[in-house]
Amino acid sequence: MVYQLVATKPSMEQFNKYHKQGLQCSFDPFAGDGSIPGGAQTYFKREGYMIIKNLYDPKKLYHTVPEERGQIHYWGKRVDEFNHIPEEDQVNGSLVRYMHPQYCKIHSKVRRILEDILGEELYNTYYHDRFCFAGQRLQRHCDRYDGDACEISVSIQCSTNTKNPWPFCIQTPSGEKRSCELEDGWGILYNGTVPGETDHWREPLESCYTRKRDKLKNWITRKEDDTYYHQISFHYVRVNGSKAHCANNMVHSI
Ligand SMILES: [Fe+2]
After folding, report:
1. Is 254's pLDDT higher than 50?
2. In sequence order, what DSSP letters do the residues of 146-208 get, joined into one string?
């Protein structure tokens, strides 16, 4: 690794409006504002991201690992209304699904929570979920390739069978590189408006079979490595921002 990555355990504070689900947001204890959402908004403006604990019920985000690899583009409301493309360039060998019907209502439900956290209105643009497997990595990028529809994005961990967290790495506007660990149902909210400032990536996904005994057992039984990590990214634009024209934009380029 040629850069210094700071593993962050930011201070978290409960958002009382969502105390039933145990929702907490990052804030800066030295900024003198520990109230949520105000303190979280200050943190987000300065750091370009925030961690949100218990953002959404992981049971509702859960989906078994599909057989397909590549890209699936859903064009209707039914789960059999899709086009499948076997190639996927951003994370080779993974499966990315655009606009899966299971998450259509959740896109709006998460938006309403984010509006409360950010204190401003948002429009839905689009979403995609991704299944990654052992050894795969997400190259450093910003969401520019998605055009203007990613002004505000949140990546939520749906489920995984990895033993250790798979950190979401992000560069802050001041140039610090942070590694953020999530759990099922937790999200990382990041600001996609300033290219280069909130670049993000993931290092290669570690297999859940790290012990020699497990590797040997798999080799003998010819069991394939079934390590996986499932996450979903919901994208939004600000109602009062310069990208508002992207509202409900489901068109995306890769
Ligand atoms: Fe991204």
Report:
1. no
2. GTTTTSEEEEEEEEE--SS--PEEEE-TTS-EEEE---TT-EEEEE-SSTTTS-EEEPPPPPS
